[in-house]
Design goal:
Mean pLDDT: 85
Distance between the termini: 43 Å
Number of helices: 14
Oligomer: single chain
Radius of gyration: 24 Å
Largest sheet: 6 strands, mixed
Structural class: alpha/beta
Number of strands: 14
Strand content: 15-25%
Strand order of the largest sheet: 2-3-1-4-5-6
Length: about 400
């Protein structure tokens, strides 16, 4: 990915839902003005969610998601329906496609209730309106009659999607709001074996871009070059940001008067769950106490938002479990999920330990956090866990006074 590309996690996610043969795929193709999805008169042609990153005027960078029909049948059909509903967890705007000839079904009404329960803005697009003798007047602001084949009202549909996607909330920043023009920031980046050769991983790319957009300068070093760089650079950096895996060394090499944090901690704030993650990590200090309904050892779910190739010393699968065992002196059980997988029932776990979530959009991360909160399960992430284990959590969040104050209040 180039520095000028918008990551999928930062794109507006637009999901198309509805019954089989309502014309979802045809409407997706009409909205995107390309043959994004296979179209057929055979019911159930779309068997899995299909995603496409693109620029959609007047909105800008979006991720279009076409989903299987919500009325699919059989055991495999139930799985497809479940996958379609899971897409809602990351959908910023939903388009419910209804066959204008038959009108809304009970399954459509169920979806509308689900949109409202999940607080997802939605539009009801009555497709195939060209087959009606006369299209009726829409019964609400979120209804529109369209024709995918005749391209009728497609531009208006796009305008409505854009209107629902826009918010008055300020644009999220990774680090740009805590540095000033003219500052320089030192980024400590080990050469990660999990990253494709010749490339930085996504959080590093995005952070560099955010620093540049703040009219500041980014100095990038490996962990063994940091001490010499700080000694010779001639000016105190505004901030040092490190990969969490080398937190201890970087903390030791960074003078106490220089603010320090990690990419993972910055992304916890960026995705909106820093405060709950800092609270959630405290569970590790009481892991030996019986606080769950589990009959045996404590259980920790390690959730990764991507599906990268596993290395022999993988951070999520190997290093974190080892460090947690060393820190607690206990032998908790570990379970793992990756990509779009995330269980709705978390009751068998004592802690959810999430990655930095750079591949997930804010809505999906907030959904996962809310699932844990609703079930009373602590929720934290890699960087905060590593900082806590290594005794540098307060230093690592000191750039966020409200978070630091909460930690100090609790001693």
């Amino acid at each position: 990915m180039g520095l000028n590309e918008t990551p999928s996690a930062n794109r507006v996610h637009i999901g198309f839902f509805g019954l089989r043969n309502a014309g979802k795929s045809s409407l997706v193709n009409a909205v995107t003005n390309q043959d994004l999805v296979i179209v057929s008169d055979v019911k159930g042609t779309t068997t899995d969610p299909v995603s496409k990153s693109m620029e959609l005027l007047p909105l800008g960078p979006v991720l279009i998601i076409d989903t299987p029909g919500i009325d699919d049948e059989g055991a495999l059909g139930e799985l497809r329906v479940r996958r379609a509903r899971q897409v809602l967890n990351k959908t910023d705007v939903a388009v419910l496609v209804v066959d204008a000839l038959t009108g809304k079904s009970p399954a459509d009404e169920d979806l509308i209730r689900l949109f409202r329960d999940k607080d997802v803005p939605f539009i009801i697009a009555y497709n195939k309106s060209d087959l009606l003798e006369k299209a009726p007047e829409p019964t609400g602001e979120n209804c529109i009659y369209v024709s995918a084949t005749k391209k009728h009202n497609i531009e208006e549909l796009k305008e409505r999607i854009a209107a629902l996607a826009k918010t008055d909330e300020p644009k999220l920043q990774i680090v740009g709001d805590i540095i000033s023009p003219g500052d320089f920031v030192v980024l400590v980046i080990p050469i990660d074996k999990a990253a494709p050769k010749g490339r930085l991983i996504l959080p590093q790319q995005q952070t560099i871009r955010d620093i540049l957009e703040a009219d500041a300068a980014a100095v990038v070093v490996k962990e063994f070059e940091l001490r010499e760089t700080l000694e010779n650079i001639g000016k105190k950096p505004a901030l040092v940001i490190t990969d969490s895996q080398v937190f201890a060394k970087v903390s030791a090499d960074t003078p106490a008067d220089i603010p320090l944090t990690s990419f993972s901690i910055l992304f916890a704030r960026y995705k909106g769950f820093l405060a709950s993650a800092v609270r959630g990590v405290r569970m590790l200090d009481s892991i030996g106490e019986k606080t769950s309904t589990n009959a045996g050892a404590a259980r920790i779910l390690i959730a990764e938002g991507c599906t990268h190739h596993r290395q022999c010393d993988d951070i999520g699968r190997v290093k974190l479990p080892r460090w947690i065992k060393q820190y607690t002196g206990m032998e908790p059980e570990f379970a793992f999920t990756s990509g779009g997988e995330f269980p709705e029932d978390l009751s068998s776990y004592d802690l959810i330990l999430h990655c930095g979530a750079c591949m997930l959009n804010e809505r999906e991360v907030r959904y996962r956090e809310a699932c844990a909160a609703d079930q009373g399960i602590p929720f934290t992430n890699y960087g905060i866990t590593i900082a806590h284990i290594q005794g540098i959590l307060k230093r690592s969040v000191a750039i966020f006074p409200n978070i630091l104050a909460e930690l100090e209040d609790e001693g």
